[in-house]
Design brief:
Blueprint lengths: L2 E6 L4 H15 L5 E2 L5 E6 L2 E7 L3 E8 L6 H15 L1
Length: about 90
């Protein structure tokens, strides 16, 4: 079942998305991707698939699919930590 949460919008959304794409490529993640632009689209990283929409002050993320063993709270915490690192 999908779930949504918000993260603080990075100062440079485009740069953050490029860093995410670069990190995925460097790790050689099969089936991993970040598609879209500075407004919205979708991504899949380590078995977690979802969409994002950039708003004025935050990014809303909706997780559509995750491995059963990953609790929702753990997925949300990990993603928020990654955004903090990239900001």
């Amino acid at each position: 079942m999908p779930f949504s949460f918000k993260v603080e919008k990075p100062k440079d959304v485009g740069k953050t998305l490029e860093m995410l794409k670069k990190g995925i490529a460097e790790q050689g993640g099969k089936g991993d991707f970040v598609e879209g632009d500075e407004k919205s689209e979708r991504a899949a990283i380590q078995g977690v698939e979802g969409r994002y929409k950039v708003e004025a002050e935050y990014i809303e993320l909706t997780i559509d699919k995750k491995p059963f063993a990953y609790p929702k709270a753990a997925v949300e915490k990990y993603i928020k930590e990654q955004f903090r690192k990239l900001s």
